[in-house]
Structures are given as structure tokens and as C-alpha cells.
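S., here's the first fold you wanted:
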Amino acid sequence: MDFLTALVSLFTNYGYFAVFGILILCGFGLPVPEDISLTAGGVISGRGYANVHFMFLVGMAGVLIGDSFVFWLGKTYGLRALKLPVLRTVLHPERFEKVQEQFKKHGKWVVFFGRFMPGLRMPIFFTAGTSGQITFARFVLTDGFAALISVPIWVYLGYFLAHNFEELMQWVRRGQTIILGLVAFAIVLFIAYYFWKKRNGRSTASS
């Protein structure tokens, strides 16, 4: 709660620019939870210091630019970028190897689910860049689709509970579980639709 209060105070004073800057730095592994940053942006919107819909757009931009830059570092400089202090502290060789293995197995799905894994987000996106298995455009589309699920939840949660910090923090603690639940539900629907369409296609062809 103190962390959220500090971010709300910072964002109240410096507005959209502070939210945007913090979110980009989160992409580089800054030890500031992205969900709390987005929620704090929603809180100042709920208190009348910003427009919540524009805050959502700022949040999306900050998240995608931060993630894209990490991907670009991996794609452009490869393993040489691991010598940078900011990467060396959060992406040690063992973690990098584990992420590489997962990426070889699951490809772009690792990028999608990486957006919902605090602490692993940056290593996953950097590894995606070094892998050569995903283009920049595909990365942005995959990450953007995942961000469209998480970013509005945090921003609008802060907006609607801007004057009730106690209840807000309860929802923040449950938020990651709720988001993962929504993702799982969406995947189940997609799979069900895929098989339904495939089955109907066969029925049409046979008739």
C-alpha cells in the first residue's frame, strides 16, 4: 500500500509523463511492479488528475515501447547485450538457458504468457529477440494482444476504486489470478471455436 501511495503521489505531480516513463523502465527490469504502476495511473484518473481513457492509451504505449526495446536489444545485439549491467542483474545464464528452452518448445505462446509473468517478462522478451523465431511485427502483435487483456484491467481497477485503497489492494492481490483465469477461459473458448468450425467445415464438405 505504501508503494502504491508513493506512485500515486509521483503520478499526481507529473501526470502522464511519469506513468509513461515508469512503464518503459519496468520493461527494462526496474523493480517496480507494472500492475501497481498501471493501477496508480488509474487512481489519479479516478481522482480527477487525468483522463482514464487517455491513461489507458498511455499505459499501452509505455508497456509496448518498453517491451519492444528489450526485444530489439536481443534481436540486434544478441548475447553481447547480456554484458549490459541492467540485463546482467536480472538475466543470469541459468535463467536465460531455461527461457531459451521454453521458447524453442512453445514459440510465440511464451511471449503471450510472458506478459502475465512478473519477473520473467523481460528475460522472455529479450530471449524472443535473440531466438530469431519471431519477427518484430509478430512480437508486437502478440505482446499487444496480451497487453489488451491486462492493461485495461489494472487502469480501470484503479479508476473505479480510487477512493477506497483498502478494497483496491485486495483486488490488486487477486488481480493476477483473475487475469490468468480470463486468459485460460479465452483459450478454452478459442479451442472450442476452432474444433467447432473444423467439424462444421467437414459436415459442409461431406454434404
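And the second, which I think is the more interesting of the pair:
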Amino acid sequence: MATPLSADRLLAALRAEGVTVVEHPGWRGHHRNRVGAWGPVNGVMIHHTVSSGTASSVALCFDGYAGLPGPLCHGVIAKDGTVHLVSDGRANHAGGGDPSVLRAVVTEAYGDRPPAPREHQGSAGAVDGNSRFYGFECVNLGNGTDPWPAAQLDAIERVSAALCRAHGWGAKSVIGHLEWSDWKSDPKGFAMPVMRDRVQKRLGAAPASRPTAPARPATPKYHPFPGTQFFRDAPSSPVITAMGRRLTAEGCARYRIGPGPRWTEADRQSYAAWQRKLGFRGADADGWPGATSWNALKVPHTP
């Protein structure tokens, strides 16, 4: 279980994963938190819209319709792979579902698929999925023949990996609506086990259901996040120089003289500029590195 990401952190996590994001006007603060809990969150749920056209689908998911007020998800994934954010809180997307599926997602203890759901919205044993899952609606008619372009499937993979990475989840925290409720059939047209394999590979490990022989650890391409305290201790390290060069390349440098190995106030100000570039605001853009922004910076590994 995890605390839901703030709007800034959600945006930053998606962008760090290479997702093309459009912020729909009014998405910040657009939610249904007043009618029920939002969090703790346990996973990501994928849907299809049963609609066509990006603009109309985004409007539908933002506003909702008679009997089901919006927002209907957190983001709409268009055919071209663009993700339109429509909510930063509780959304009407999952409804009631099976508690055995929730347990399987929380523990990530299942094979290719979670247990078959036997509950749905309104049934006696159903649990509230709107409080527990991020939801993404994918523009598709849901008839089994409407195509799923490669760019759209790539965006589903990246969105799912972004949230798993932000919360420390594996790919088994990503499910389809049909795996949550016995009334649902979405997403229709691709297999969720295949998508989970893609997400797990993006997260940097073989899927848990397909164990591989141990391999000698390779030298990482990028320097792993050393922790915020590393920087607060004012270190002198080649990592700081490498970080400063990346900040300079991103147009965020605030140095009078080029970056050096000693952490200084100029480094902190430069890093704050990078955090703002990612979409962080306020205390989340204070210049002290965090894991999400550090991973997005891609500081080259130093010997």
C-alpha cells in the first residue's frame, strides 16, 4: 500500500518514463475525494473507452455522463501514445471488485493472471477499487477489431512502469478491468499477461513468472540515486561533477564557473531548476535530489 502521488509527482514520474503528457485544463484538483477515500493505492488499472476520437474521449473521461460523474480515470491514452491527464485524485473508473484480486495484487503473488474475479459493483463482497487503483482509459472501441497501435501500447507500458517505479511495485500491480470485476471485458484486443511482461522488462528485471539463471551484475550505465543525505553532507565526489554536467546539458545550470566535485549552493539551485523543468513545484522543487528526478536526469556512472 502507498500514499497516492501528488499531481506534481504524478506528472514528473510519467515524464521521467518518457511519456508524452498533455495536462487537460482543470485536471489538478479534479477528483471525487469528497465522496470516498483516495488511497492507499495498490496498483494500476487499464481500461478501454468504447469510443473513438481523442478530443471527445478526453472530454467524456473528464466530465463523465448521466449516472456516472467524472472524472472517469486519471489519464486518457490516445492512439498516438499521448497521455491526457484528467484527474489527480479519486476517479470513477474501477468500481467494485473482487477482494481476492486485491490481495493478489497487494502481494503480487500470482502466476500469469490474478484469480478470476467473482464480484462486481454492487455485489455483496465487492471492495472499492476507486480508492485503490490509478486508472487509465485507452481510446479504443473495445470490439476486438479496433487496432491498438504500437505507440499506444508503448504508452500503456510506460505509464504502468512509471507508477510501479514511483511506488516500488512490480508489474503484477498492473491489471485490466476485466481482471477486477466479473462484469467487465476491458481492455479487449491485447493480453494483460503480455503487457505485464513488457512492464516488468522495462522495470529492469525478468518477469517473476519466468525465472532466469543468476548473471554477473553489470556496471550500471547511470549512477544510482545515492540518497538525499549524500548531498546534504556536502560531499566532494565525481558524481557531483557528472550531475552538474547533465544539469548543464539540460539547460538548468546556475553556475558562475563550470560544475565541480564539491556540492555547493549553485548545485542546489541548478537541481531546483531541473525539478521545476520536470513539473515539481513548491517544497518538491527545493534543489535536494530525490529518486524520481535523479533517475530522470540519467547521470552517467562514474568509476
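Why I say that: The chain has nine helices and ten strands. The first helix runs from residue 7 to 16.

Talk tomorrow,
H.
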